[in-house]
Amino acid sequence: MNQLLQLQTLLITDPPPPSFLDPNLAAVKLISATSARSNPRHATLIFSVLPDPNLHVWNSLLKALADNHLYSLTLSHFNSLLLLRPHLLADEFTFTSILKSCAALISFADGEASHAFIISHGISSNIFVANSLVDMYFKFGRLDDARKLFDDMPVKDVVSWNTIISGYSSHGDVNGARQLFDRMSEKTSVTWSAMIAGHSRAGDVRAARYLFDEAPQKNTVCWNAMISGYAQNERFSDCLKLFRSMLLKSSGVQPNAATLVSVLSACAHLGALDSGQWIHKYIDRKHIDLSLFLGNSLADMYAKCGCIQDARKVFDQMREKDVISWSIIISGLAMFGHSDEAMSTFHEMLQRGIEPNEITFMGILSACTHSGLVDAGLEYFRLMRKEFVISPKVEHYGCMVDLLSRAGRLQEAENLIASMEVEPNVIVWGALLGGCRIHGDIERGEAVVCRILELDPEHSGSYVYLATVYASMGRLEEAAQCRLKMREQRVSKTPGCSWIEVDHSVHEFFMGDRSHAQTDEIYAKIGQLRKKMRLVGYVVNTSVVSQSIDEEEKEDAVLMHSEKLALAFGLISLKKGEIIRIVKNLRVCNDCHDAFKVISMIEERQIVLRDRSRFHQFKEGFCSRKDYW
């Protein structure tokens, strides 16, 4: 950009004669270059100083604005073109930008007016314009109009077919997309990719994989469609496996930045640090540019794998940073309980002129929640609404209710729920229920459970809470009724699941899981740990079990929690001194938390556990969260 500005300065201070360089041609090149550097404001300034811009310059500006998602400005400048330069007849390049903007804004009136203008000027048969019209009507949700335009096209190219296949797929009509796909005489890799992506968006990953396997030639776009499909449908292990297959193929197909973004997302969700680090080395080895999206994905992977310092290094290396970049670091610090650093990073972001968004505030409010900073949390909540005029979403309210509830300020939490600008959901009421559980407010807890069950009659946590509370009070008949009601309504708890990565392979465990190839060794290790833990005074906390079974069975059930199985596998598989990293899909229970502290001491191992919303770092018998979680 600096070199570009130097060239522009030279054109201004020592302009060549028009016979040597047409000012309009220079403007087209400058506008295009500044747009490519995501600087549409400068592109507009260049345009504004031209005394008599021709149609090519107008088209360059419209494209620059549309490419940078300034769709309303694109339409506004188009209207200026019609008013100020009626002699300049808009062409196909004008309308590709205009139709793109109408589609993005879902502006029916502007879209239909543009369509009428196109017909009156006799350019509706132009293939670029026709493809843009088909895409626009699909974005409007008017599938019949899009199909009619497609059928009436005198000439169709591969973009035409891809547009209509993607259009049907994006609206969930995979059968319609498949019929068109089968009609094509020539199917390029891009077309196969459109079908694969369509099935993936519709959640039909099996069909997407079938098409992927059938594709005669798979280019990078085709591989990306399937890898991204697995990531979008939360098939993260399959995403990593397919990526490894891509690397092993001898076809010469190489992953690009888009591939790596999808794979890093899978690594982040699974906590697959080894795979994520390998990708980082691959980026360096192949000299792949650390673009904004790739840099954000890499930083996010490190943050979610518990390596916040590595995430910060990537962040510092990025040439370009946006609000998402800052939000990743703030949220990562929050998950680790580093509230002071999260707050200082937030204020550094403000000093640099980056305006926070709702994701940033979710991160900073989480930082306050994880550390019990009630007053700071209330101040940031006020700042979000008053200073930055961001309307809180249900997630922000849930975070604040959780913060107040954990601090024992249950009445304030309930008052906040009553004042919410959006309808409170199960998560918000669940945060209050968590506070009732921590502080033993049974009467309020029962009332909250009624609210939750009104919203979600199959909410397992409410039944379990009541059953556990009644059992602890000796009200065994009522506890049994809760469990009976769960069975009658076929309510089932979300199964606990834990992941651990060993030798670049992610291993998955469920409670009581015996499907692993090393099951016998894992359970033998559990037995050894049980004996060692008893010797240092550890007693199994069976209160986390709500089933009506005897005490010994409860102990066995607790010892078979998924995170304990993953930990046992890590202990027998990873070398002494290696950090054991585990990811769990639910909140870690009290017993597993206490057990991990003891095991970190007796086994002399550092354990990092990421549960549903935070990290726990266990070392020498202590947890980094100081038991506030």
Task: Give a short overview.
The protein has about 625 residues and is mainly α.
* Structural shape: elongated
Average predicted confidence as pLDDT: 87
Largest sheet: 6 strands, mixed
Rg over alpha carbons: 29 Å
Distance between the termini: 47 Å
Helix content: 55-70%
* Quaternary structure classification: single chain
Low-confidence runs (pLDDT<50, min 5 residues)?
none
Please report which band the strand proportion falls in: under 5%, 5-15%, 15-25%, 25-35%, 35-45% or over 45%.
under 5%
In DSSP terms, counting alpha (H) and pi (I) runs of 4 or more, how many helices? 33
How many strands appear in the DSSP assignment?
6
Strands of the biggest beta sheet: in what spatial order?
2-1-3-4-5-6
Query: Which structural category do the helix and sheet elements fall into?
Result: mainly alpha
Write the layout of secondary structure elements.
Layout: H1 2-13, H2 23-36, H3 40-48, H4 55-67, H5 71-84, H6 92-105, H7 108-120, H8 127-139, H9 143-152, H10 158-170, H11 174-183, H12 189-201, H13 205-214, H14 220-232, H15 236-248, H16 257-270, H17 273-285, H18 292-304, H19 308-317, H20 323-335, H21 339-351, H22 358-371, H23 374-387, H24 394-406, H25 410-418, H26 426-439, H27 442-455, H28 460-472, H29 476-488, E1 497-502, E2 505-510, H30 519-535, H31 551-559, H32 562-573, E3 580-584, H33 590-602, E4 607-610, E5 615-619, E6 622-623
Parallel strand pairs: 3-4
Antiparallel strand pairs: 1-2, 1-3, 4-5, 5-6
